[in-house]
Amino acid sequence: MWSQIIAASWAFTACAAAPLLARNFPAGQCVVDVKIETCGDFNCKLDGYHRIDAFLTQRIEANEIKVIEEGKEAPEGTGWYPAPHSAHEGVTDQGGPTLWSRRDYDLQQAGKVVDLVVVRPGRWANSTEDFVRSSVNLGLGEAAGAVAFEDYREYDSVSSGWIYLEYTVAGPRDPITDVQVVACSGDSVGAHCGNELLGKGWKRRDTDLNGPTANGSHIYIFTTTQLQTNRECVTSLKVVDDENDKTVSVNLNDGTTGDELYLEVTKARDEDCITSIRPIDTSRYFAEPWYDVVTDSNGQPADVNAGIGSADPIFIYTSKLVERPRKEPIKLSFSSDGTFRIALFSDLHHSHHSAICRDVPEQIEADCSEEYSFAFMGAVLDHTEPDLVVIDGDLYAENDRKQDKTTYPQLTDGAIVKAIRPIIERGIPFAVTYGNHDAEGSLLREEIQRAMDIQPGFVGSRGLNQLDGIGNYKLDITKSKDSEDIAHRLWFFDSRSYTYFGNGTNSGDYGRVEQSQVDWYSANADASINAMAFFHIPVAQISDAIGLNTTARIGVHGESVCPQGNGCSNTPKLDDPYVSLFDAFVNAGDVKATFSGHDHSNDYIIEAQGIQLTYDGSAGYTAYSAGDANYNREMRVIDVAEHGKTVSTFKIIDDILAGTVHRNESEPIVTLF
User: Fold this and answer.
1) Are 80 and 414 in contact (CB under 8 A)?
2) Beta carbons of 497 and 536 less than 8 angstroms apart
3) How far is 92 from 84, CA to CA, in rounded Å?
4) What's the rounded Cα separation, in Å, for the pair 506 and 523?
5) Cβ–Cβ under 8 Å, residues 165 and 122
6) Pseudo-torsion of CA 61, 67, 72, 74, nearest 10°?
């Protein structure tokens, strides 16, 4: 038997005035209950609850959350409530870890309530910003076997046996009152570095400042929000090379051949306080909305790995946001001539480091990097001037690092700043779906969604809690900016990552849109409004070899189809497993066209039972193209006209050897409906 954690009703507005014991809050307001269900397969479900897709090796049933070890007393302090049952599978109520939560009415009034609970594989504490980790391992521990990627980071919950409950608290952020830098020997286990501080209420930012292959100490930044007696807070940071100016004595490049660098910390009393410090491992500095980069003595963005040729650049970002910004809703509407343009990109495959380009002409191979992807996306956006940008999955993926041809586990926060950068720079509204690679790195889908939610221009949503997946939502396009009449609709679905056996291991088949998502769509579809649907992994009916298609193929079929619920085959199964999404589209009658990525070398359009099934192609230079070195990276333009009555599409290619970005003139502009 395997267990999964299931939590209900969270989002980013606080349930400030009511006790968390109640269970009648509106969906999407805050966490009101946490449960663990044990089941024999991956389809653990509980009505009204959202499933967190991480397996536990022990059972828990069921503001601040703590897991208390077997035989230990309740947490210190008042206001703690225990879960009603044992947390250990197969033992009595007196055995095993127990889950406790604290309910403080004054904190709830201030909006300080738990708003996201996750279960994270791996032994690293405080994996991402804002998360608090319970100290009790819910897995099997080291007895489960060797830990993958021990020298850097590992994520495999089943093989490692290290699984922790983590949560975030909504409401105003507390000011950071102190900063420490801890150096540990490069021969030590980095995950254990500074553990003594964690027991004293400090948080570790989870990026090793010496980065992979730096061959020095493990260097970590620790922060605390515990108020000091003089109530001073941290107001600024600077990276300095003058030992006389240093505040924190630890050399940020300790044990390496890099420059001696130190952190200068400035404090003041309760004013202009820093509330967030984020070191980000990335190929170079990228501006981040709502964040400032820590500079050096010359006022330039400070690379804390300066002088270390073997390591990635790492930049430290700070923010003084007290609360996550509340954005005004962005209204999508047709222009005065009844048109609306969508720029559709798929499979960018950005990594935090500078990755090797794949399947590119030998003339550009030596110089090629993700900069080519940035240039292509920017040129397209400037040329097409879209009303909306859609990235249809696989924004991020692990790739070989260019400087040493080694693949390191993906640090997703460094990749996020890349994938949406050209869009944010131009101030264009954008939406995303998530692909099978997006949550394979350091961030879970929930965390990626939280990062997206605060981005300027993002119009997507995490969707209803009780649905499978993250990012099931619809966007309505009104007839005009002054009208509320819906003229066209865009549906977005999370097609997940992979399918799993009962023990939590990957079956080798791809994910799918589950029945809960289909039921939500069917209940809200309106045949009187023309619609299109976006999801990363295509439905099996897109194959031209299974006898369902009624039109000739337009575009290139360059590799096997790898559809939802299946492996890769041009003759996928339609009934084992049965994926009901396509039939739901046929029955509802609103969706006239679908768009999917995933299979990079397929960019064709084909009709099945009156619905145009469309491949996006691939826009990323660090993504494969089925071994074709002459493949031009491409994207798709979707033109909606006559206030949603008709839609046409064409592809724009990056003709890299000719040095031009232009429409693929070898194919006609296709009228979808």
Assistant:
1) no
2) no
3) 12
4) 31
5) no
6) -90
User: How far apart are alpha carbons 471 and 46 in whole angstroms?
Assistant: 20
CA distances from 8 to 85, 115, 375, 573 (A): 18, 10, 42, 34
CA distance 81 to 37: 20
Question: CA 246, 248, 250 angle in degrees (round to 5)?
Answer: 105
Residues 533 and 389 in one domain: yes
CB 177 within 8 A of CB 275: no
Using CA atoms, how far apart are residues 656 and 618, in angstroms rounded to an integer? 14
Residue 120's domain comprises: 2-169
Q: Give yes or no: residues 568 and 541 share one domain.
A: yes
Please calculate the CA angle 570-575-577 and round it to the nearest 5 degrees: 90
Identify whether the C-beta of residue 254 lies closer than 8 Å to the C-beta of residue 216: yes
CA gap 501, 25 in Å, rounded: 34
**Better-predicted residue by pLDDT, 20 or 389:** 389
Give the Cα separation of 374 and 425 in Å (integer). 11
Residue 326 placed within a domain? no
Average pLDDT over residues 633-657: 97
What domain count does the chain have? 3
Mean pLDDT (whole number) for 357-383: 95
In a domain, 485, yes or no: yes
User: What's the gap between Cα 308 and its chain centre?
Assistant: 29
> 64: which strand partners?
102
Helix axes 581-588, 515-524, angle to 10 degrees: 10
- Of 222-231, 313-322, 530-539, the poorest mean pLDDT is in 222-231
- Is 59 a domain residue? yes
Q: What is the mean pLDDT of residues 489-514?
A: 82
Q: State the pLDDT at residue 529.
A: 98
Residues in the chain: 673
Is pLDDT at 22 greater than 50 in this prediction? no
CA 185 to chain centre: 32
First-to-last C-alpha distance (Å) of the chain:
49
Does residue 554 lie in a domain region?
A: yes
Q: 232 is written with which tokens? A: 């001073």
Paired tokens of 121: 């594989």
Picking from 128, 145, 169, the residue at the C-terminal end of a domain is 169
532 beta partners: 490, 593
Higher pLDDT, 121 or 311: 311
pLDDT per residue over 256-274, tens digit each? Answer: 999 999 999 999 987 789 9
Closest Cα to residue 384, out of 422, 338, 415? 422
> Among positive and negative, which fits the CA dihedral 449, 450, 452, 453?
positive
Measured distance CA(411)–CA(432) in Å, rounded: 19
* Cβ neighbours for 247, distance < 8 A, ≥ 6 positions apart: 262, 263, 264, 265, 266
pLDDT in tens, 43-100: 667 777 777 665 554 333 335 667 666 667 777 776 676 654 333 333 334 445 667 7
C-alpha closest to that of 347 among 458, 472, 441, 436? 436
Calculate the CA 543 to chain-centre distance. 29
Return the closest-CA partner of residue 409 out of 209, 207, 218, 256.
207
| Rounded mean pLDDT, 357-384 | 95
User: Which stretches within 50-171 are classed as H helix?
Assistant: 105-109, 157-160
CA 471 to each of CA 174, 420, 452, 618, 635: distance values in angstroms, whole numbers, following the listed order: 29, 16, 11, 21, 22
Q: Let me know whether 315 and 345 are in one domain.
A: no
Phi, psi at 40, each rounded to 5°: -90, 0
Dist CA 496 CA 393 (whole Å): 10
DSSP class of residue 198 equals H
Record the tokens describing residue 111, joined without a space: 């909006």
